[in-house]
User: Fold these one by one.
Assistant:
Number 1:
Amino acid sequence: MTLPLPDAWLLLDRAAGNLEAQIQGAIREQILDGRLMAGERLPSSRALALSLGIARSTVVGGFERLRAEGFIEGAQGATMRVARLATPPQGARARPIEPLPRAAPEPERFLPFRPGLPDLDSFPAALWARCLAARARHLRLHDLGYGEEAGLPELRQAIAAHVVRARAVLADPEQVIVMPSAASILAMVADIAGVRGGRPVWLEEPGYVTARDIFLAAGARLVSVPCDAEGIAITRGEGPPPSLIYVTPSHQYPTGVAMSLSRRLELLDFARANRAVVIEDDYDSEFHYASRPLAALQGLDRAGCVVYVGTFSKVLAPGLRVAYAVLPPSLLSQARAVLRREGSSAPIHVQAALADFLNEGHLRAHIRRMQTLYRERMQATRAAVLASGDGLLQPGSGDGGLQLAAWFKNRDADDGQMARALHAAKIGAMALSPFYRNEPRPGLLFGIGGATLERIPALGKALDRLLRP
């Protein structure tokens, strides 16, 4: 028999790195645990790589490690089988193969007004399916080989053209890399910026919790820098100069504030003087409602210190698992080395379909359509928050992005308890306190992606019921 393609038995932790060793360890455990018998066939390296969304070379490397140890056998390029061990593992076949328990989905992830989600009901499914099917049927032979570690060249060219036109980014396709998520890009940049060993990373306060966790896992020492109505106040940072600075200048997360031009120039001067790498997370800059958005921070950079990070998770759908970065030339060789070592890439047919989706103008059309829709939802959500609860919540401007922050006028309010009560009422707002590392300011964060006009009255009623004495 052939071992089925991985479901729960082979889960890769991309943030932990060394994917070859993870594949080796997972299969070796199956053999030692008696779940795989001598003579059973392994999936082909190509099928396993496509299933896991990694480079085939990574799977081949894992197989080679197992063959060198004597756990599997077979000629290179041929079917690999479980080897006959001199002493069969204790308890071999003593119990049937059972899938590992799956984590239950978090119900609150799918509630209306959950931050971080676009309107999945408006996803252009028919257009995307057409692009995906066409590329799945007609992938070119060279696309199926050992492609460039930075991503499909056609997609990198399309991304460069998009960010140059839409965000005034200074980008050559050679500077673009494609990875499965913005989180994986942050982890890679932390690696090549050398934050391990407690080197300082400066972050916005309040700020993106996932970025904070990634840098902590990379071994950095975090320094919170206050944000105000103009964005990060870099002169208020304390301690040794940073090796890395993480910012969300277009729509500060979670407050939604746009960093002023003077603050942008101040940040770039500071980074240049201290030889720090700046990560510009431009996660939902496509959506701006009050005026034309400021150009990307990266477009102002003349010292080559800004890494521009974008994603298709907010503008299209998180399930695409495609993000990208525009790297300064000084970091390209290191980044490519990490990508070769880790084999972290989006499936090639998804990259090819996305290149067509961009080149045929479907992304631009979708953004225009959603811009109008999201503006209407943001205005209605803000009005509902402002009118509810006797004015106890003060919302932000709602000038752009997919979330609206609102703060309690009472600094002693328990926003965690309020968020839990809203979840019980099927409203997925998040408490703002966890976004702070120092003194928290209580409030709520509302996502407007799924905030249809039919759902917004229920939000106002729930806030009234919970906030009014």
Number 2:
Amino acid sequence: MGHTPTILATLEDYLGQNNLTLAQFAEHSGVHQRTLNNWIAKHRPVAIHQLDRITLAMGLPAGFFYELYIDNYIIERSPDWRRIEPLLFRCAELDKLDAIRLVVGHIMDNLLYSPKLFDAAEKLFAQGQHNAALLLYEGIAEGEKYQHSERLAICQYRLFTIQVGNNQIRNLKAATRFEPFVERLDEIDQLDALKDLANVYRSLREWDKLDATARKMRAKAEIQYSLNYNEERKHREHGKKTRGPLFGYIAYADLLCACVCEAQGDYQQALQFTYAYADLDWVIETDQETQHWVNLFKHWAEGNTYVNKLLSGDTSVLPDYVEYIAATSITTENEKLSKLLNVMIAANRYTIDIDEVLSRFEVEINSFAQLPTSTDMYTQQVMPDYFAWFGYELAYYYLKRGMYSDGFKHLIYALLKAHILNNETYFINCTGLFAHFQAHALPETREEYFKLLEKVWLDNVEKNDSAGHRN
């Protein structure tokens, strides 16, 4: 059985090899000689910032001794939070996730550390250190999995927020895991959680789940809005606030229900929900932010009224809808994609010539791939789905009209987006569309297409350890 090395043994070897006294090393490292003496003679551990100075003075990379520090002073001794917390934050800075995993796995044998670890996770999450925070939340969630606590529910909410990304299959799993914990959250947090879940379900086209989530959000928001102006609570302020104005959750729920009806082809019912969030005269607040959101919902309702009429076959509204899109302000530029997608769907469904529309918005169409990133769940989840869908509809339009160069360009773009999203439906639709028109593809287009298919194949066999990746 080998001897486990210690930091002290490594330091003593370094001093001997470099003919340094402890006093000289103290001056070189900036760590007091008395601190070093106490460490060596009395085995009192140094603080993590002192260890960093010692490591730097020895010419070693930052964090070089962290695993040994964990073995020597955390696992082999009674854990001391005064040492653990700064170590966790420093590991997060250096992206030493294995070290964090080691610490969390050790201390979570004692659930008394759970509140402290949770506070640290919340700080890391607020700082954007999501990979490190994820490990802390996972440790707490595993340790408290048999508890019925709000802290466990918040951990699951954070895990959901961090894990949701480009892969739609993973997103569905993350949403399914988190959904049972929503009811354990604070009443205010529930609204934001339901809104985030709804936007994920919307991007996945899980219409039944979206409908149920939106209706639940509306019911809870109505209760909170009523309580907010209840005489008994009029002079009391709730400790937590929703991310947006409270009335907005009610209106947004109606907007989501309209989306469900539209997707199911029930355009008349979709219009009824649209009229509901257009009429916000019941809103009590009169401040500037409230007016901003009221105007925004009215703006969305105007556009979606055109959409439902257009998709139901009333093509006479197309010119007005195009002017509405053109008037979209720069602050809602992201929305132009979804609006133009509606035009594309109608054009392909009812064989409408929209060459002039596409020419008018050529700059915007070419800039969609460079849309800014956002922490908002709608922009993160719904907009990428629209990218792939828009690319497919645009490719279909051009190919059906014999504009093969533009058609194949957008088809390959849509295929790539579908692969990134791991969206099988889009991917199959794109490959089917290419197969239908492949006789019109130039040799270089065919080569680009089959190279992309080969890349997808290799990615999949490697991920699933299938035959082929070792060759």
Number 3:
Amino acid sequence: MPTARPIPGTAPTADPAFAALKSRLVARTGHHYYADKDDLLWERVGRRMRVRGVPDPAGYLALLEESEAEWAALESEITIGETFFFRYAEQFAALRGTILPERIAARSDERRLRIWSAGCSTGPETHSVAIVLRELLGERLPDWRIGLTGTDINRDVLAVARRAVYGAWALRTLGPEERERYFRPGPREGTFALRPEYRGLARFEPQNLMSLLDGTASLALTDYDLILCRNVLIYFHPDVVQALVRALAQRLRPGGWLLLGHAEPNPAFAEFLEAVALPGTAAYRRPGEGAVPDLPPPPARLEPVPGPEAAWAPLLPPEPAAREVGAAPIRLRAPLAVAPSVPPAEGGPLAAVRALADAGDLEASWRACRAALAEAPTDPRLRYYEGLLARARARPDEAERAFRGALYLDKGFVMAHYHLGLTLVAAGRTEAGRRALANALRLAAALPADAILPEGDGLTAAELAGAARPFLGNEAA
């Protein structure tokens, strides 16, 4: 095979083969995250092209058509994420103190538990659950049938999960005593091997979550007591997120629990799941009675349309680059009623910013927002949209500054408090994020429950309170 020429740093967006490759990738994996990140996608595709000695997108697309193994390698390249044991201490406190004890009590007659860790990456989440289960069940463990499964689209990270050997960085939240209790020295200096009594509880399998929507998912993926799908949904188109969460809910047994990432809850999930406020944690349960109704299938075309005018809807794709950064998909609850063809003069600069974002042209929307701010730097609404767009562009520091700017100009801007809180929580600054969310909750509580919040695109004060309260736990009582 010929040696590949160097892959340039800028994506060849004018090449129809690159657009076709991107379309196939998004359609297969559901990773809408790459909708507006051509250069990042090109960087990762380019690594595989260099390995295989393919000089151009057309040649690599032809290779993918012939090789399922190359698809697996590319999927591994685009989904590698960093994770560690007992990430999000509040959620593991909820698992240890409420969720798993409740499930153990509820299933004591059958003495059987089924748990699914979806998007498990290299396995620390799944193995952390195994540790908690073993400690809770203690001497009773041999009498129980535990089905603990971790799945991921990336076969390389699954191999790491099965070996269960990690560096110190993956154990960074553990104290010396916990390291000693759960691990023994690994095969190389500075590595740690999970002790067999914990490693043996989990198994790992390849699984594409999109199979839940296209009917190809295994029939064994059902009847779960607990599903963890944390910081996976950030990759997907918002319409697919809604369908995936409903599909996950259908695979819970009545009374079963679903845990998402800290910033991923959505008030719309309350249509088919019960939101449960636990300290610092947003959790969901399938109601004890009744089935979860099906959701109409998402729009048939969620992949990019080849060519420079590729349109993506609705507003603002998810962030960020790594699966394990707990970030919320930023979207309005419904498409805005401003058509992309409306000239800016009809609605002013703000309408132009919103229209361009709705059309999926985030770069143009960002430029329009910056230009509008140059003319009207004291407009808090423009600062707010600057923050939303910065989050969509995976620039959390800029988003924080913009939201704080909006609040400096308007201290009562409920949605700015709310999104500032989500931004801070996603960045791991939990206490600061809670303070911002508490401010949003306090301001919303002073309004009538059915009051429509400015720039909330139909969100009511009561709905915002329901979305914010799980992050605050007992503090919101």
